[in-house]
Design a protein that fits this description.
Pnp Oxidase, Chain A
Length: 586
């Protein structure tokens, strides 16, 4: 972890009343530089200090990478992707020298204890009380289904003791059941998922169905055994990034971390689970994930919650909305190990820019060379802040033939984690893809009958606008031949009262604005002049399979809050979550 005791951008806070108050004290910052990192030294009812927002700026992200900028790392990766067969002995020697540093990036397994095991607390001995760890509550509705419209209490959810507190910044180490007897499991995965505090010795495990951790859990469920898990906090500064990095299949997060720091991550055996853990972690929570739990998609009206499960959530998410509660498996904690003077790292999850924004921008830059290998037509890409990393991507390409942009769209919709993207905007090489206003301008020039691609596919399960959990419409805009047109785009905000109001407002706006070929509708609390807010809300509240309205010479996009009466084309409207309010948390 970044040296929180010796770091110029860390501000110490002597006292904090409770773990739930740390998020209210914290100001993420809404500007380009990032917000202040804080160290809370004395939290009532807890045994550890807490560090928050340690990676929440471009500068601190580069510090985590040893002072290297994102482009430098990307260039190193690019050098490995541009290999040609050696033409002679001298070329072969040069190639060996180039690849030699990669040999040192493998993890280093050690016998004995690591620094993360200076103190060992066992549930079997009555030593563990997870409530004494400063696990935070980020938002007021977290952990209470009744606050988001369910007639189902935290007590019924089996999570009331935890008080809506969530682990938000840990690497979750798991392996596939097929590797359960392997001394060096090839499937060793690190993912960064949230985990809800249930009580003194239990957590709830939340992961998306397409994540490796969920796939591992299904493999253990298939053999009828609980899945071992190690939840690791801190450690080498490259580990949090590696846990979030969308790596190609078969590449380990441990290898990526070793590559980023120039040497392998030191590992030691966990105390109570058959896993290797980073030896320099601040803290490790060891346990077993119950596999008796049924699948997600459960509602209280469906009957019994079932064994080994809790009704996890709601949780204020990076989408700017609460993710709604669902059934997820219980973690039976077996041990907690930690350094003698451990500092507990957390992050506040919420609308951007939060700490995860800077982790995501690192991925955007570092992964560009690999994306260009998979899709050579791509020159550059940009993940706009308003898209929260899965709702929208801007892509620059050099179009060489008709429908080339559609080829790129479909390639992206089949490429790793970027496949979950809902909106893709493709521009040509003359447009600065990082200049969002320039992209919006060229979007105004598309031919609405020819330059829009609508498909069905898998979506991020946090997409509450999707008519089904994790499935819905996607849309691509081919702007490669577009020339900006004045007055072609109209943005309206409406005070929506009933389902269908969005469609009516779009029809009226079309009749009153005959020059407009594209009309976006958003809610009345969104300023139409603030394009970032407009498209943040549009991307969050729009599903292409349900919310597009074609008129004679115009297309309308309904980006308003959905409610009963907004169902169209056989596509449902699911329970709509409350929006997170940044400046008023009561």
């Amino acid at each position: 972890m970044l040296d929180v005791t010796n770091f110029a951008q860390i501000e110490a806070v002597r006292d904090c009343p409770t773990p739930s108050m740390t998020a209210k004290t914290f100001d993420a910052g809404r500007e380009t530089l990032g917000g202040q990192a804080l160290l809370f030294e004395n939290i009532r009812g807890c045994d550890f200090p807490l560090a928050i927002n340690t990676f929440g700026s471009y500068f601190r992200m580069e510090e985590a990478f040893g002072g290297r900028c994102f482009e430098e790392i990307a260039n190193t990766i690019a050098s490995f992707t541009n290999i040609t067969p050696p033409s002679g002995l001298s070329d072969l020697v040069s190639m060996v020298k180039q690849f030699k540093p990669l040999m040192s990036m493998k993890p280093k397994r050690s016998k004995g204890n690591g620094r993360c095991q200076e103190v060992v607390q066992l549930v079997a001995d009555g030593d563990v009380d997870l409530t004494r760890i400063p696990i935070i509550k980020c938002w007021p509705f977290d952990g209470d289904p009744q606050k988001v419209g369910y007639d189902y209490s935290p007590q019924q959810s089996r999570t009331s003791v935890g008080g809506g507190r969530f682990i938000t910044f840990a690497g979750m180490h798991t392996i596939h059941a097929d590797d359960r007897d392997a001394p060096k499991p090839k499937s060793h995965n690190i993912g960064m998922y949230r985990s809800q505090l249930v009580d003194e010795t239990h957590l709830a495990m939340h992961w998306h169905i397409h994540h490796d951790g969920a796939a591992h859990w299904r493999s253990w469920k298939a053999i009828g055994e609980p899945m071992p898990i190690a939840i690791c906090f801190g450690g080498e500064t490259v580990l949090p990034y590696a846990a979030t990095c969308p790596l190609p299949p078969g590449m380990s997060e441990l290898l990526m971390a070793g590559f980023l720091q120039g040497k392998g991550i030191e590992l030691v055996r966990a105390k109570t689970v058959p896993l290797w853990v980073p030896a320099n972690s601040e803290m490790v929570i060891e346990g077993f994930v119950n596999t008796d739990c049924g699948p997600c998609g459960w509602e209280p009206k469906d009957g019994e919650l079932g064994e080994g499960a809790v009704f996890e959530g709601p949780f204020g998410d990076h989408t700017g909305y609460y993710s709604m509660p669902d059934r997820y498996p219980l973690v039976d904690v077996a041990a907690v190990t930690h350094r003698k003077n451990a500092v507990f790292p957390v992050t506040v999850v919420g609308p951007p820019p939060q700490e995860d924004y800077y982790l995501g921008k690192a991925t955007e830059r570092i992964m560009l060379p690999l994306l260009k290998v998979m899709i050579p037509d791509i020159i550059d890409y940009h993940l706009p802040m308003f898209g929260t990393f899965h709702n929208c991507v801007f892509v620059k390409m050099r179009s060489q033939y008709k429908e080339n942009a559609r080829k790129v769209m479909h390639a992206l919709w089949g490429a790793g984690q970027i496949a979950w993207t809902k909106v893709i905007v493709v521009v040509n090489e003359t447009v600065d893809v990082h200049d969002e206003h320039a992209v919006f301008e060229v979007l105004s020039g598309i031919a609405i009958q020819d330059d829009i691609e609508v498909v069905r596919g898998a979506l991020d399960i946090l997409d509450h606008a999707a008519p089904e959990v994790g499935a819905g419409g996607k849309i691509g805009f081919d702007c490669t031949n577009a020339t900006p047109r004045d007055g072609a785009v109209k943005i309206i905000s409406i005070n929506k009262k009933n389902g269908g109001d969005g469609a009516v407002a779009l029809q009226k706006a079309h009749q009153e604005n005959q020059r407009a070929s594209i009309i976006f509708a958003v809610d009345s609390d969104v300023d139409p002049q603030n394009l970032g807010d407009v498209f943040f809300n549009f991307c969050a509240c729009f599903d292409p399979s349900r919310d597009m309205h074609y008129f004679d010479t115009c297309i309308g996009f309904d980006g308003t809050t959905k409610m009963i009466g907004d169902e169209r084309n056989g596509k449902a409207v699911r329970a709509w979550p409350p929006k997170l309010v940044v400046n008023n948390r009561d």
